[in-house]
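Re: the 190-residue chain
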Amino acid sequence: MLNDVLVFLKNSLNAYLSMGETHTDAQEEHVTFLSGQATDSLSFKLGFTSLIMINLEQENVLRSPDLYSRSLSNGTVQKVQPEIRLNLYVLFVANYQQYEDAMRNLSAIIQYFQGHRVFGHQDSPELSENIQQLVVELVTLSFSEQNEIWGSLRQHYQPSVLYKVKMVVFQDETPKAVPEITDKTIGLSL
């Protein structure tokens, strides 16, 4: 499901960024994933904006009151493991020869997400059916936090912008039926 979120963001941004192009030999892809193998050091493609998930956190605020039960539309109650709600931190890194091109591309990404903060199935039919909704929020980092991120990536700073993508929900796919209560007598002994 995490890959569905990242592919959706990449494809949505590529469609938006390609709409503004007027020349016919323009590249179709502006936003891409990192190149190289997992064991290699990170490699940001020149002439592209790369996206990378740099953190994952569990959202504990919005929890169901009964963590272990789910009610279906027909009234049936099922026993399930509690769902896990995740927030993804996605970094968009613009690696261009010309600084102005990097700023132009990052500006377009910020403008796109400013106008498209919430993605649901009605306005984004290409959103995976496993994902109910995504909410995108700009994250502002301090200089020390930026330094820590780029240090952990073992890269020098590149023009970039960080977004928090909320809520990817993982649900128990193998629920168990809750046994029906048939005996309604309460046995109290004095």
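Residues 22-26 have pLDDT under 50 and may be disordered.
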